[in-house]
Amino acid sequence: MYIQRTVMFILLFAVILRIDTGSEAPPSSTDHRPELQASPLPQMMKGSLWETLATVSYDPYAPNFVPIFSDTLKKMNGKYVELVGFMIPLSAQKKQTRFVLTPYSLGGCSFCVGGGGPESLVDIRPSKPIDFTYDPITITGRLELLQKDPSELFFRISKAEVMDKGDVKNNLDNTY
Hints:
Layout: H1 2-21, H2 49-53, E1 57-58, E2 67-68, H3 71-76, E3 80-89, E4 95-96, E5 99-102, E6 122-126, E7 130-131, E8 137-145, E9 155-162, H4 165-171
Parallel strand pairs: 6-9
Antiparallel strand pairs: 1-2, 3-5, 3-8, 4-7, 5-6, 8-9
């Protein structure tokens, strides 16, 4: 519960910053690290399940983030899916029994790179512990749309398994 509340606090803080400033700040002219400047939809997301997850909407002014799922997402609820992304560990263990998956690689913080919102975080519940890695992984499992508990993320993949690393390179552009 603590981790969920922490993630929701970060999400709320990111939205408040965007509301207060009215727009995102332009990249610094002295920052020559293009890998730190995320686009609104990273290449990995295009044509993948990430693009479909991005169809969720919510009222940023409501007291809690309550998702409004598109018809496409509602049809996918409970279906087995495939998703490529980067791990955000939720414990300081080599083996992760639960973690968050995001399409952004900068230390796993989708808000820090300016392109992520609640649609860019998926709660992963593996069927068996998974070794932490900084490399992209392909997850397969059952998609769950989470709407009843505002302290949860919007999406969960349960019964999750990791595909072999060789399969990840073949599936970066062909997920879903």
